[in-house]
Amino acid sequence: MQKLPENFETYDEARQKGFLRLKGLKDSGQRVVGLFCSYVPTELIYAADAIPVSLCANSEEPIAAGETQLPANLCPLIKASYGFALTDTCPYFYFSDFVVGETTCDGKKKMFELLNDIKETFVMYLPNGREPREAAINAWRNEIIRFKEKLEDFYHITISEKKIREAIRLKNREREAFQDFLELGMLMPPALSGYELGTKADASSFTFKIEERISDFKKRTEEALEYWNKERKGKSSDRPRIMVTGCPNRGVRDKLLKTIEELGGDIVIIDTCGGLRNQLQKVREEGDVYTALAEKYLDVTCSVMSPNQPRFDMMGKFIDDFHIDAVVEIILQACHTFNVESYNVKRYVTEEKGLPYLCLESDYSQADKGQFITRIEAFLEMLS
Ligand code: BJ8
After folding, report:
1. How many Å lie between the centroid of ligand 1 and the Cα of residue 7?
2. Residue 124's domain spans which residues?
3. pLDDT one-digit tens code per residue, 286-299
4. Taking the model in full, what pTM does it have?
5. What is the pLDDT of the chain when averaged over all its residues?
6. Based on the domain organization, do 152 and 176 belong to the same domain?
7. Which end of the chain has the smaller Cβ count within 10 Å, N or C?
8. Which has the closest alpha carbon to 35: 76, 93, 74?
9. Centre of ligand 1 from the C-alpha of residue 248, in Å
10. Closest to 79 in 3D by CA, of 88, 89, 68, 90
């Protein structure tokens, strides 16, 4: 496994530091909007001079509290997020002026009904699919405008198209810097570990100013390239290059992703919500801003979309561009959409791309770590 940099921050450390920074910002009057999913057009939040904070939880701790009102056989991400809200133990939820959710998976959208009793939760009605294209774009564009109006009503402001366009340009610049960082995984042999790639990508949400995030990504990309040119370029490696796909994996990163790398695999791309999946497509900078946002955000390749061909097209591109040797799919327990889709992912990876595929279904507990070590060891052995 590639060495972590000396100043490496774990996700939990970055989250902790973010608390204090956010408190400081709140004390100075900063507007804050809590959100869960990649479908939210955050450009509108920035155009309202607010900052978006992610409320998707990755900790086992609040799950017991979540289960007092939610079924036990529900996705751990939903139970943990709701458990935090219920026990008022997540500063990001506490500091959110209101929450925005969308009708993604059934568990999330039904949880939002309960969440609304704790803090105002505005729900955007996301189409279930992208076809027929024009109808889907129009429906999503209307919801995007409704969200803009919600922000205007809530904060008693007017959001101009000029501000939205500025936010679109700024977010596109961030996407470019983010993309350059994540594409470090294309280097052979890799410049840094998948553990670092994933941690840094997820933890970047705790740096609240976009300009700071851009310079942070650029700095780490430059450092990693310099290191690679000096120490790694031209060296061969017999470690298999792995693509991880599936559900958001923050809550199982140490248990599964770290284990894969410790046992001899190199994770070079993480195809999840926090990864390259959402950075490739930029928002069109010309024309109607709402249509441009609708086009970008309807194309998020989450399994809640049916059918979901763009996810397969993107996986194919990643497999080719990153010279992938095998694919590991991570499913959070009781996530029906990713779980059902995994059948087709397996078929695609094994039959169309001719690569080995491993599916790991887990939750946030440590109880199953032993059995995963055995399965990952056997999988990596088969690749050698
Ligand atoms: S846009 S991936 S963040 S829904 S894992 S809660 S799908 S039952 S996290 Fe997700 Fe938004 Fe999609 Fe991304 Fe439901 Fe599945 Fe749980 Fe999920």
Report:
1. 31
2. 11-162
3. 999 999 999 999 99
4. 0.96
5. 96
6. no
7. C
8. 93
9. 7
10. 68
